[in-house]
TrEMBL record:
PANTHER family: FAD_NAD(P)-BINDING DOMAIN-CONTAINING PROTEIN-RELATED, L-ORNITHINE N(5)-MONOOXYGENASE-RELATED
Designated name of the protein: NAD(P)/FAD-dependent oxidoreductase
Alphabetical list of Gene3D superfamilies matching this protein: FAD/NAD(P)-binding domain
Superkingdom: Bacteria
Name of a matching Pfam family: Pyr_redox_3
Length: 492
């Protein structure tokens, strides 16, 4: 058995962000439980051709660890994985890492006022539990009749099979979201013939993204004030994008016009252009960035099927529109289990209630971080903590700071942090009011931000990063009802 003050599950950006916040607040008694063989989370697991971030690299990193050596405006997946490994090394968390260790269950022990976390390497007992498991970790495999009958290589884009030969083979890709937009042009470049099944087209805007020269990277290293100024500018640009994503009429119209112009400039065939034009409001689904997707789809290397994949019979793929196609390799770029987080079934709070049960009508929280009925528990990248306009790392840093402040409050009051259910309800109502008129709710699309069971926005924060920072700053501890330490001792 391992006994610590804080157990952190996950060692991606969120887990490392919490570890950094704990250390800066003077806490050293913690472990990071990581199911993978290294830190990195999303950027360890996703290795498909063309994998890269769609947030500017100098904004997609920890404020405490600026990186002057990013290769370009947008970092590649391997670069981001290296960055996180470097952060872990510089933070000296190696002796606290429990790699290749999976959380099998976690239960709140009321009598001892601790979390008991089961792993294949033994039990971990902690005063507080931080779930930094990531929101896009478990591949979503669609329920397609006959899928198991496909005879060739079949895998999800986030579980890429690098042993599969692609050149000269017909590769079917299911989905046209963020991964597919990066992946399809690379498949075409590698010599594959691509059949692309598109259920719903995406709004796509120009990406840009020049490479930094050696001189620029040297200047960033020698003049950190320039790097800080660049980050501040990128932050401001990101905040300004919120208007177009959230439904401001003028901003959305301008952004939509840019997207339409981008499509017209890159796709000359009117029929193909029509098939690639969304019929829903700009911002309703995730807005994608690419300068290479449209040219690839317009080339002879890619056949666009403007329909979902409906059935599989061996190597014959039948679209929902009735058309049939053949493939040697089948790639599912179908996203992740997002609104219903897989870890929620494993975590039991008061009276043995699971997070999944508490979230049966969609995720709820206070401050997008703490949950009623789950004492001394913190969730990062969970309820209403994602962004559609800027860097998720900014949200992680705010949540991690809130975790450290809340634990300091626990030290002062000497008890258990229990979220007042009324505080959670009030916060949930705030989110609902802020989201009610946005494209995410009213835009006429099906997106992964909204929980189908309740129709509530449960993934996105419906505001700017500045607004989230201000909201957490207003959290004065009244969201908790602390149980005195003597009560805990008496119960044990």
């Amino acid at each position: 058995m391992t006994r610590v003050e804080v157990a952190i599950v996950g060692a991606g950006f969120a887990g490392l962000g919490v570890a950094m916040a704990l250390r800066r607040s003077g806490r050293e008694s913690f472990v990071l439980i990581e199911r993978g063989a290294s830190v990195g989370g999303t950027w360890r697991d996703n290795t498909y051709p063309g994998i890269a971030c769609d947030v500017p690299s100098h904004l997609y990193g920890f404020a405490a660890y600026p990186n002057p050596d990013w290769s370009g405006v947008y970092a590649t997946g391997p670069e981001l994985h290296r960055y996180l490994r470097d952060v872990a090394e510089r933070e000296q968390v190696g002796d606290r890492l429990r790699l290749s260790t999976t959380m099998r269950d976690a239960m709140w022990d009321e009598g001892a006022a601790v979390w008991r976390i089961g792993t294949e390497r033994g039990e971990i007992v902690a005063d507080a539990l931080v779930l930094a498991c990531g929101r896009l970790t478990e591949p979503l495999i669609p329920d397609i009749p006959g899928l198991e009958s496909f005879p060739g290589p079949l895998f999800h884009s986030s579980r890429w099979d690098h042993t599969t030969e692609l050149e000269g083979r017909r590769v079917a890709v299911v989905g046209t979201g963020a991964s597919a937009v990066q992946l399809v042009p690379e498949l075409a470049r590698l010599g594959a013939g691509v059949t692309l099944f598109q259920r719903t087209p995406a709004w796509i805007v120009p990406r840009g993204g020049a490479l930094y020269s050696d001189d620029e990277r040297a200047r960033f290293a020698d003049h950190p004030e320039e790097l800080a100024a660049l980050r501040a500018r990128l932050y401001s640009e990101g905040e300004s994008r919120f208007a177009s994503r959230s439904g401001d009429a003028a901003a959305a119209a301008a952004a939509r016009a840019d997207a339409v112009a981008h499509l017209r400039a890159q796709v000359t065939d009117p029929a193909l252009r029509a098939a690639l034009t969304p019929d829903y409001a700009f911002g309703c689904k995730r807005v994608l960035l690419s300068d290479t997707f449209y040219p690839a789809v317009a080339s002879d290397a890619v056949e666009l099927v403007p329909s979902a994949l409906g059935a599989v019979d061996g190597e014959v793929l039948t679209a929902a529109d009735g058309s049939t196609h053949r493939a040697d390799v089948l790639v599912l770029a179908t996203g992740f289990a997002s609104t219903q987080q897989p870890y929620a079934d494993l975590v039991r709070g008061d009276d043995g209630v699971t997070l999944a049960e508490h979230w049966s009508q969609g995720m709820t929280s206070f401050g997008s971080t703490v949950v009623a009925g789950f004492p001394n528990l913190f969730v990062l990248n969970g309820p209403n903590a994602s962004l559609g306009h800027s860097s998720s790392v900014l949200m992680i840093e705010e949540q991690a700071a809130y975790v450290a402040r809340s634990l300091a409050l626990r030290d002062r009051v000497g008890g258990v942090l229990r979220v007042d259910p009324d505080a959670e309800d009030t916060y949930t109502e705030e989110i609902a009011r802020a989201a009610a008129s946005t494209p995410w709710i009213t835009g006429g699309c099906h997106n992964w931000y909204v929980d189908e069971r309740s129709g509530r926005l449960t993934l996105l924060w419906p505001g700017t990063v500045d607004a989230f920072r201000a909201r957490l700053a207003r959290a004065d501890g009244s969201e908790f009802a602390a149980v005195p330490a003597r009560t805990m001792r008496g119960a044990s």
